[in-house]
Amino acid sequence: MVVGVWSDDKNAQLEATTQFRKLLSIERSPPINEVVQAGVVPRFVEFLNRDDFPQLQFEAAWALTNIASGTSDNTRVVIDHGAVPIFVKLLGSPTDDVREQTKPALPALERLINSNDEEVLTDACWALSYLSDGTNDKIQAVIEAGVCPRLIELLL
User: Fold this and answer.
1) Domain locations in the chain as residue ranges
2) Cys-Cys link to 101, which of 61, 65, 95, 154 (CB 3.0-4.6 A)?
């Protein structure tokens, strides 16, 4: 699967990314750490930018949101590879499936703004700032993620 993700063949990329997404979608103990250790997260983030291939964007977004839903370290890996600004952009995607699949990334930010780690907290707040500086749909997504009470607490 790793070879497929790093392939130049877009069909191999899609097939491998879909397989990873299915693996990460199992209910009991998905192998999130193993997938992270396989080194595919940066490639999934690259795939988020493939506006010419919405199906690959969708599968990559789903895989990344599953990774981000793991531990705070898993979420951090997704953030550190630059996924958040791209997720923000994809909230405005013309493709319904892509747009809907990026919304689950927001609860990961909600978890992160409750972190005691100042660097994590700073990154999460900046990401939310970028989101709330967008369209009404993006602002609504931030509100629905339930982050406002914590943001207010941080401002006080």
Assistant:
1) 1-154
2) 61
The 3-class secondary structure across the chain, one letter per residue, is CHHHHHCCCHHHHHHHHHHHHHHHCCCCCCCHHHHHHCCCHHHHHHHHCCCCCHHHHHHHHHHHHHHHCCCHHHHHHHHHCCHHHHHHHHCCCCCHHHHHHHCCHHHHHHHHCCCCCHHHHHHHHHHHHHHHCCCHHHHHHHHHCCCHHHHHHHHC
User: How do residues 89-147 score in pLDDT, each as one tens digit?
Assistant: 787 778 888 877 777 777 777 777 888 878 778 877 887 887 777 778 778 878 888 88
- For residue range 1-55, what is the model confidence (pLDDT) as tens digits? 999 999 999 999 999 999 999 999 998 999 999 999 999 999 999 999 999 999 9
Architecture of the domain defined by 1-154: Alpha Horseshoe (1.25)
